[in-house]
């Protein structure tokens, strides 16, 4: 069973067609303006968030709560390792 939409009945009256075109353009314009406003709010919120974050980081460093020092050798990996030998059975 297929669902088929009824055929679109377009008006032959040129005034109604022009009015529907203007109405459609107005709706598209409102949606574009709304999108630009939302984008502006998101950008402003992001900038405020970044500014507050940078201020807190700078304020924390000034108060002496800076990040811990990095390791002496950055090529050293820390973790637990198991050495596997070819002929020796492994017991975990």
UniProtKB/TrEMBL annotation:
The chain crosses the membrane at residues 20-52. It comes from the Bacteria. The keyword Membrane applies. Keywords: Membrane, Transmembrane, Transmembrane helix. This is Uncharacterized protein. It comes from Luteibacter jiangsuensis. The lineage of its organism: Bacteria, Pseudomonadati, Pseudomonadota, Gammaproteobacteria, Lysobacterales.
